[in-house]
Amino acid sequence: MQPRPVLSSPPQAMLDPGGATDLFLSHGVQPRGTINLGGDMARLRHLRWGLLTAAVLCMGLGAQGAAGQVAKKDSGVRFASLRANDVNVRAGPGVRYPVKWKFVRRSMPVQIIAEYDTWRKIRDWEGAEGWVHRAMLSSKRSLILTGKMQTMRRDPQNDAPAVARLAPGMIVRITRCQRKWCEVDANGYEGWIRRIGVWGLYPDEKLR
Pairing state of beta strands 46-47 and 34-36? Predict the structure, then answer.
């Protein structure tokens, strides 16, 4: 069975009569940006390969046990973002462990929940977990919109002029965050969004 491609073209923009810009994900881009190799998380992913061989299955079972042991070695839960558009997520901390799925969305926020040598165990906005090499992660912070469409405004005020409307699944880079608002960059559009319906930030966290 041949791998099925996942479209990963950047968000497109359309102007509306009101002057604001609608930013949305191009057709075919998965909101989660992943390809699944297992059936337990198929709700928002595409299957990439067919049945695994018996040897790989055995390897995967062993990897789960090992990963559970090393997961205790952590140095603090924190947020990060993906450095590339092609990131393999493995069952354990090493290339000998099978790939569980693949992220195809650069800058997507993830939460680092454990460490082992040069590998990091991460959790995404849906709660799925796996191991990636630290070279695939960046300390630059980002958010993913998980709620309703949100209006980006010129200033951190509800009555400030609208800059763009961001659709669910949109990934934005954080410039700074206040108690209720975050200044972000969305595909070249800069402005402020409410800290509601987003993932990648702790409730009381402020960034400068």
Answer: parallel
| pLDDT at residue 76, rounded to an integer | 80
Residues 98 and 90: their CA atoms lie apart, in Å, by: 6
Q: Which residues does 37 contact at the CB level (< 8 Å), separation at least 6?
A: 47, 48, 49, 52, 98, 99, 100, 101, 102
pTM over 0.90: no
Q: Residue 208: what pLDDT?
A: 87
- Asked if residues 179 and 205 have their Cβ atoms less than 8 Å apart, the reply is no
Length of the chain: 208
The segments of the chain whose pLDDT lies below 50 read: 1-18, 25-74
89, 86, 87: which is closest to 60 by C-alpha? 89
User: Which residues, including other chains, have CB under 8 Å from residue 11's CB and lie 6 or more apart?
Assistant: 23, 24, 25, 26, 170, 186, 187
Which of 36, 16, 33 shows the shortest CA–CA distance to 171? 33
